[in-house]
Amino acid sequence: MVDYVRKHPELRHREPARRLADEEAASLSPPEVSRILKQANLVCFWRRSNKKKAVEERATRPDQRWRTDLMHEHVGGRVDDSVAFLDEYSRFIVHHEMLLGMDGPTVSLAALKAIET
């Protein structure tokens, strides 16, 4: 186990456990691997990546961006599906519709109706 981790220093404790089990060389749980690596001073602590988050554009005027809200609504003892389209700038509900199902084509048709209004 220790030799394997020394050959692959980029791996954390879960991946060597999986790979060794796949190769049928050893069957160790990730906590066992972690314990062994700590004893051998080979623990690779988690490092936060330096990836920058994408800056999300915000709406600066009405009808620039809409948000979609899909819901299951309890009505009269049954559950119905609905969709609402909200203007991101004003938070105004541009279009609301009860749906027969929550599949892609049905939601797409509701979006087309919202655009037409």
Structure characterization notes:
The chain has four helices and three strands. Helices cover 32% and strands 23% of the residues. The model has no long low-confidence stretch (mean pLDDT 83). It is elongated. Strands 1-2-3 form a three-stranded antiparallel β-sheet, with helices on one face. It folds into two domains: 1-40, no CATH class; 66-116. With 117 residues, it is of the alpha+beta class.
Task: Explain the layout of strands and helices.
Blueprint: H1 2-7, H2 14-22, H3 30-39, E1 66-75, E2 78-87, E3 93-99, H4 104-116
Antiparallel strand pairs: 1-2, 2-3
In short:
This protein is about 30% helix and about 25% strand. It has about 120 residues and is α+β, with helices and mostly antiparallel strands.
Supply the number of helical segments. 4
What string gives the helices and strands in order?
HHHEEEH
Which structural class fits the helix and strand makeup?
Answer: alpha+beta
- Give the tally of β-strands: 3
- Unreliably modeled segments: none
Number of domains: 2
The shape, in one word, is elongated
Which radius of gyration do the C-alpha atoms yield? Answer: 26 Å
Strand content: 15-25%
InterPro entries: RNaseH-like_sf (IPR012337)
Protein name: Transposase
Keywords: Plasmid
Organism: Tautonia plasticadhaerens
Task: List its traits.
plasmid, 32% helix, RNaseH-like_sf, three-stranded antiparallel sheet, Transposase, alpha+beta
